[in-house]
Write a structure and sequence with these properties.
With 115 residues, the protein is an all-alpha fold. 68% of the residues lie in helices and 0% in strands. The two termini are 26 Å apart.
Length: 115
């Protein structure tokens, strides 16, 4: 599978997860939230599969490092997203509290673009 196809699958999956995360945050129905979380999990699995399918096409150490970096960023973003979903489940969205600005983290380096 050409790398552009893999990139397309990863980007689509990432966009779908982002959209579903917004839907989760805006929702208050427990059943709907559970369904959204299931869909997010399925999207994550599709992204993982696309990256795994790409592994045999890795051509050199630079490509191998870029794939590892991409995976690391996706894990970092998923960790933050999981925290957002946990707060959403508690209906603690859009309500800033003490320390909110202190808890903000910088955008992962991998999402800021490559040098």
């Amino acid at each position: 599978m050409p790398s552009i196809v893999v990139l397309g699958k990863v980007m689509k999956g990432y966009g779908d997860i982002t959209k579903k995360t917004y839907q989760h945050v805006l929702n208050t129905d427990d059943t709907a939230m559970a369904n959204i979380e299931k869909a997010i999990s399925e999207d994550r699995e599709r992204i993982d599969k696309a990256l795994k399918d790409y592994e045999p096409l890795v051509s050199d150490d630079k490509d191998k490092k870029m794939l590892a970096d991409d995976r690391a960023v996706l894990i970092e973003v998923a960790t933050v997203r999981d925290k957002v979903l946990a707060l959403s489940r508690l209906n603690k969205t859009g309500r800033p509290g003490p320390g909110t600005s202190k808890s903000r983290q910088p955008l992962p380096a991998g999402l800021r673009g490559r040098p």
